[in-house]
Amino acid sequence: MTSPGPADPPPRRRRGRPGYDQPAVLRAAVELFNRKGYDAASMGDLAKELGLTKPAIYHHVTGKEQLLGEALDDALDELTAVVTEASRDGAGATAYGRLREVVRRSVEVLAAHQPSVTLLLRVRGNSEVEVAALERRRWLDDRLAALVSDAVAEGALRDDVPPALVSRLLFGMVNSLVEWYRPEGAYDPATVADAITAIAFDGLSRHERG
User: Fold this and answer.
1) How confident is the model at residue 91 (pLDDT cuts 50, 70, 90)?
2) Buried (b) or exposed (e) across 184-200, using 16+ Cβ within 10 A?
3) Which pLDDT score is estimated for 5?
4) Is the pTM for the entire model greater than 0.85?
5) What is 115-159 written as a DSSP string?
6) 3-class SS shares of the chain: helix, strand, coil, % to 5
7) Mean pLDDT of 170-198
8) Within 10 A of 154 (CB to CB), how many other CB atoms are there?
9) pLDDT, tens digit, 9 for 90 and up, residues 139-167
10) Alpha carbon distance 138, 153 (integer Å)
C-alpha cells in the first residue's frame, strides 16, 4: 500500500538578472551571512568583503534579499529533485530502497552545497524569501514522512515510531553535517554517506552471522 503521488513542490523564487561576477558575489554573500547573520549583514559589509563599491554590486543584484533567495535556491533545488525522484514508485524500487537512497544522496547534496544548506537551516521566516524557503522545506518533510510510511507499510521498517518523527531524526542526522563536516577533512562525501546510511538503517550493533 503506497501513499498518493506527490503534489508539485512549491514554485521556486524567480531569479534576478545574472552578472559577470555574480557567482563570486553570491559565494561571498553566503559566507558573510553565515558568519555575521543575514539580518546583521549589510550590502556595505559585502562590498567591503569583495573590495568593491556598493554601486558595483548593485549593477549585478538588486540587494541582499536577492542574494539570500539565490543561496536558498542553491540549497533546495537539488534536494527537491532527489526527494521528488524518490517519491515516485513507478520505477519498481521499494519504498525502503528509495528511502535509503534519498538519505545517501541528501548527504552528497549537503556536502556539495554546505554553505548554502547551513544558511537554509538558519532561516526563521523573517522575510518573504525565507517564508518561501520554509514552505519548500515543509514540502520536503511531508514527502519524506510519506516515504517512511510506505516503507513501514511494506514491513521493512518498525511500526512503533511515528513516520514523521523517523523522518525528522533521519534528516536531523544528515543536517548535523553542517556543524562538523569539512571537505578538506579525513572523510570524503561517499564515505560519510555510507556511514550515515548504515547507522540509520542497520544500527551500530555487531550482529553475529548465522
Assistant:
1) low
2) eeeeebeebbeebbeeb
3) 54
4) no
5) HHHHHHTT--S-SHHHHHHHHHHHHHHHHHHHHHHHHHHTTSS-S
6) 65, 0, 35
7) 94
8) 14
9) 999 999 999 999 999 999 999 999 999 99
10) 23
